[in-house]
Design goal:
Strand content: 15-25%
Number of strands: 8
Number of helices: 4
Distance between the termini: 26 Å
Strand order of the largest sheet: 1-2-6-3
CATH topology: Aminopeptidase
Order of helices and strands: HHEEEEEHEHEE
Shape: globular
Helix content: 25-40%
Largest sheet: 4 strands, mixed
CATH architecture: 3-Layer(aba) Sandwich
Oligomer: single chain
């Protein structure tokens, strides 16, 4: 998967909070190819699942950005545009990881709406939806010093 190309395409789609429908449609098409199941829920979240059983692991990112378009620029090793860091860059990485993963349990990708506003997407996930993550007894430390889990 061409992650830089994916990121550039996502950055070209303006997606402020509650205006993510075009981006969600694009991403649903991308993840559907790798997923056992993929759908958009009532809040417009993109949800994709592959594998079965325990453990259940989630990759969770948001599709929306703060208001105000920015020019998308590809400067070789640097890509600039609204959401390149928060959160479309990480989202592209999660889509790539999900697409290439061969999970020993269940892998769930949740791409949510309205994180920059009222968190409507996350609220929708809390009401139901995909399988819940398997709790970890203690957080895992990533090599770059950020706790996850």
């Amino acid at each position: 998967m061409d992650l830089k190309g994916l990121l550039l395409r996502m950055l070209s789609i303006y997606s402020p909070s509650h205006g993510e429908a075009e981006l969600a449609g694009f991403l649903l098409g991308v993840v559907r190819e790798a997923a056992d199941e993929a759908w958009t829920d009532g809040a417009g979240n993109v949800v994709a699942v592959k594998g079965r059983g325990a453990p259940v692991t989630w990759l969770h990112a948001h599709m929306d950005t703060v208001v105000g378009p920015l020019e998308v620029r590809d400067e070789g090793d640097v890509v600039r545009g609204r959401g390149a860091v928060d959160d479309k860059g990480p989202l592209a990485a999660y889509v790539g990881a999900f697409s290439s993963a061969r999970p020993s349990g269940t892998l769930v990708l949740t791409l949510v709406t309205a994180e920059e506003d009222d968190s409507a997407g996350t609220e929708e996930l809390l009401r139901g939806g995909p399988p819940r993550p398997t709790p970890e007894e203690k957080p895992r430390r990533a090599s770059y010093g950020i706790n996850v889990g």
